[in-house]
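Reviewer 2 asked us to include a model.

Predict the structure of this chain.
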Amino acid sequence: MQRVPPCPEVPAPEPSAAQVAQLQQQLEQLKHALETNRVIWVAVGILMERYHLDRPAAFRFLARLSQERNVKVCRVAEALVGGSEGNGFSG
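Predicted model (structure tokens):
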């Protein structure tokens, strides 16, 4: 059986400035999404504890608050996690 010699390493092409900018933008979007996701799930946990709900019910509760107030879910979650009083979000 004949051995195949390994392929010589080919250097990767340098990314263009536009590609770097696009990757930086994607990275910032992903960071924001992760932080938003974290805040939403902390809020869900608060609702689960406060109202003795399971996870799906707590998320539906949060989503319903969002729809009723015409505010993004992440903003409702931030208010709940922040413990903002007098804003209609706390229970």
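The first helix runs from residue 17 to 51. The chain has a mean pLDDT of 88. We have added this to the supplementary material.
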